Amino acid sequence: MNSTPLQAAEALPDRAHSAAFWQEGKDTLHLAGPLIVAYAGNQMMGLVDTAIVGRLGSAQIAGTSAAGSLFFVIAILGMGVMMALDPLASQAVGAGKPTEARRYLSDSLWLAVGLTIPLSFLMVASLQVLPWFGFDAETRHEAHLYLWGRLPGLFPLLAYTAYRGYLQALSMGRPVMIATLLANVANIPLSIGLAWGGQMGVGGSWLPWGLSQGWGTAGVAIATTLVTLLQCALLWWVVRSLAPKDQKKGASLAGVRALWWLGWPIALQHLAEVGLFVLTTLLMGHFGKVMLGGHEVALKIASFTFTVCLGVGQATAVRVGYAVGRCDAAGARRAGWVGGSVGIALMSMSALILVSMAYPLAWLFVKEAAVIHAAVAFLGIAALFQLVDGVQVVATGALRGAGDTRTPLVLGLLSHWLIGVPVGVVLAFGTSLGAMGLWWGLCAGLAAAACLLGVRFWWVTRGEMRAAKHFG
Predict the structure, then answer these.
(1) What is the pTM of this model?
(2) Which residues of the chain have pLDDT under 50?
(3) For residue 244, cis peptide bond before it (omega within 30 degrees of 0)
């Protein structure tokens, strides 16, 4: 039956609407692909380190888990501030002002310098909390070694985050991916060599500075610092070759203020979420080395599969930022919902992998049967919270691209600390679930965040939107 002219006219907007969504999906995946590989590569380095440390002993893996968590939960404050570059640079590019985006990058690097010293002191001071959570002397010793080895890598990590955000805003994810792949190639021999030294079976009497016996936990930490410096240097080289170049010297007070204004809520929101995982790790110390080791292995594996949604979330932030920069509210709304749909689809596949491959995955990282058994149990819960965690990360990215950073902070605090923590503590210490109860608390907090952030994005994109540079 032939359609009438009126029916054909009505079909055109529907087809155009559908085509716009498909194009948005293609653009999101084009940017997200290299970022997913980059995030996965960063997690792969962590998995390699876990596998190496896991064969040094239970005290080493427990100490690395505790110190690594302390390092990351404090570093995320600086990284969160650096991520303010995402909306500022992407909206500047969307508005056709690439020089302004470059200027924000310069200001973010100056801000990274100012953040490094206080964050370093805070990291050293954080080691004093370990006795409060029941860590034994041997585990605390290994934690000290690991944290001191990671400390010099803090500024390169913050600078790398800034360079990555700037390149994302230019839709240049490939250099980030290549830098991470090269870092992975360097990390394996560095980590094994510095951790084991001459014990690798190739002789080692000629090795300097005690490396004939290896540096153990400290060696793995130093290797991570070196590859972080490599990643930062590679992205610096790429950015240096790009035009337009900022001709001004020194920091712009207005630019630093804009970055700080948007960045501190991002930092605290990440702290609220990451702090939940760190607190879980510390509380896990009450259940012994076996459960703590299983928790660490499962968390590393789940974090690796979760990198898929991190890449989609960052790409969504950029796509929403482009639309806001060109004053396209409908485009911003479309970019957010498309990013969420892509994230849910990919995280469903990740959950399936965790359920079906739990035992062989755990076996790759630890040799003790009891630790493997604990890790498999944790991975069953992780398969569920992968879905809700993916939703909340993409929704956070979409809101960040729109310049909304304060409301996600409030919603994150509410979800993780007023819902997730109490649920986890009650289930772990008030029921027979024990250590597993802590992970169900994680799941509850992430599910609440996913729902609240999704509703917030729907509300924000209902009307007109303004550029983040006008905020504050």
Answers:
(1) 0.79
(2) 1, 3-12, 200-207, 209-210, 470-472
(3) yes
Given a contact cutoff of 8 angstroms between Cβ atoms, the answer to whether 195 and 155 are in contact is no
User: Within 13 Å, how many C-alpha atoms sit on residue 458's CB side?
Assistant: 7
Q: Give the contacts of 57 (CB within 8 A, at least 6 positions apart).
A: none
Which residue in 439, 443, 467, 465 sits closest to 391, CA to CA?
443
pLDDT at 252: 78
What is the distance between the alpha carbons of residues 272 and 257, in angstroms, rounded to a whole number?
23
Closest CA to 405 of 85, 24, 74: 85
pLDDT at 230 (0 to 100)? 95
Write the DSSP symbol of residue 464. -
Q: Which residue reads 């790409």 in tokens?
A: 315
In b/e form, how buried is each residue of 301-331, taking b as 16+ CB within 10 angstroms?
Answer: bbbbbbbbbbbbbbbbbbbbbbbbbeebbeb
Give the residue among 325, 403, 313 at the shortest CA–CA distance from 100. Answer: 325
The C-alpha atoms of residue 127 and residue 144 are separated, in whole angstroms, by 7
What contacts 459, CB < 8 A, 6 or more positions away? Answer: none
The pLDDT of residue 194: 82
pLDDT value of position 271: 82
Per-residue confidence (pLDDT) for residue 228, from 0 to 100:
93
> Which pLDDT score, from 0 to 100, does residue 253 have?
80
Residue 355 near residue 380, CB atoms below 8 Å:
yes
SS (H, E, C) 16-78: HHHHHHHHHHHHHHHHHHHHHHHHHHHHHHHHHHHHHHHCCCHHHHHHHHHHHHHHHHHHHHH
CA distance 163 to 172: 11
Element (H, E) at 407: helix 406-415
> What's residue 419's pLDDT?
92
Instruction: Supply the angle between the helices 85-94 and 369-401 in degrees, to the nearest 10.
Output: 40
pLDDT tens figures, 379-435: 888 888 788 888 888 999 899 988 888 999 999 899 989 998 999 999 999 888 888
In whole angstroms, what is the distance from residue 396 CA to residue 390 CA? 10
CB 238 within 8 A of CB 209: no
